[in-house]
Design a protein that fits this description.
By secondary structure, this protein is mainly beta. The protein has four helices and twelve strands; from the N terminus they run E-H-E-E-E-E-E-H-E-E-E-E-E-E-H-H.
Length: 169
């Protein structure tokens, strides 16, 4: 099911990657604003049919075939231990380059591409005990908004990435 979202491709050559520093794609999940570096974003597509995969982790909804590429799909809500909701017309998939692999992240809604100056980013809050904000790279301040900046390299560890991939034989 392809909604009214057009696929948005972000193809950045090495020369362009420097101009992407400080640019983030912001999105909503569970009424909270998150951001990821735009340099990690490959494209944004509307929610579509996802093929479930047996024995995938709970937060992994399955796979999609995107122009001949099999992409594992993660529900950000579930990965962040939030309540699952029914997908709607604003729900979309952000395809990101994660550890040299394409992974799709289901989010409630994409907000915008925005610049966040380094001076407007502070370290993530500390958590006492064994708990830590493993996924959060920093907190961005935008006018009246607070953006939790996710570290795409830490959303899944290497073992989790390998578990989600279809391996060639």
């Amino acid at each position: 099911m392809q909604d009214n979202y057009e696929a948005i491709s972000f193809a950045a050559g090495q020369e362009e990657s420097e101009s992407l520093d400080g640019k983030f794609l912001t999105f909503w999940t569970d009424n909270q604003l998150f951001g990821i570096p735009i340099a990690d974003v490959v494209q944004i597509v509307g929610i579509q049919e996802i093929t479930p995969v047996p024995e995938y982790p709970v937060y992994a909804k399955g796979i999609i075939n995107l122009r001949g590429n099999i992409i594992p799909i993660i529900d950000v809500r579930l990965r962040l231990h939030r309540a699952e909701i029914e997908y709607n017309e604003r729900t979309c998939i952000i395809v990101a380059n994660l550890k040299e692999t394409y992974i799709g992240f289901i989010v409630d809604a994409v907000d915008e591409v925005t610049d966040i100056d380094e001076k407007d980013i502070c370290p993530p809050p500390r958590i006492l005990g064994d708990n830590k904000n493993a996924f959060i790279a920093g907190v961005g301040k935008l006018a009246a908004k607070v953006v939790l900046l996710l570290d795409t390299e830490k959303i899944l560890n290497q073992d989790e990435v390998e578990q989600l991939l279809c391996t060639e034989q």
